[in-house]
Amino acid sequence: MLAPPHRRRRAYCHRVGQVLCAQPIAHRRFIALSPLLFIASANGDGLCDVSPKGGAPGFVRVLSEQLLAIPERAGNRRTDTMRNILANPHLGLLFVIPGMRETLRINGRAGIYRDPDLLEAMTYQGKQPRVAIGVEVQEVFLHCGRALVRSHVWQQETWPPADERPSAGEIFADHMQLPDITCEVVEEHLEESYAKRLY
To answer: pLDDT tens digits for 41-58?
Structure first.
């Protein structure tokens, strides 16, 4: 005999939201197909930061059931995540697969890896990362797709037109407030860096 609907719903949510401390095969497949993740960290004072990390699907290496490695590629040179790890090793990861509503969440402890064999294996387009972020998995679970369903993020027809979006050049120039740094100068620099120094 089935439990009342509200009890069945609670039991289902408990099972679906179950937190594991290792990565089952399906979770590994999710990571292997993900070209984008967001990494949340905090410094010793608890000040938080979130940074995107991206690459070809599989750029994050699953070294074991409880260990991941994320290559540290060229970025904005702020090194916020790296500095935070040195002060506070706890991280949160959110993996995304384009077109998929659900996301994969992983929480764990991080360290900075310099193993030559690992870094060589992460070489892409002739560029080897100087270091990698190693993450010891403590919690892993699938996050429901409601936020992505509500946002229609994968439906291109809902995206704002390009001429309505603020450009990166506008945002950077407005932020820096320097007379020689115009929107056009910033845009030119960004395009050159994306073309020549992506990795």
So the answer is: 999 999 999 999 999 999
Tokens of 5: 């609907």
For residue 141, what are its two tokens? 């679970």
What's the pLDDT tens digit per position in 136-178?
999 999 999 999 999 999 999 999 998 898 888 888 888 777 7
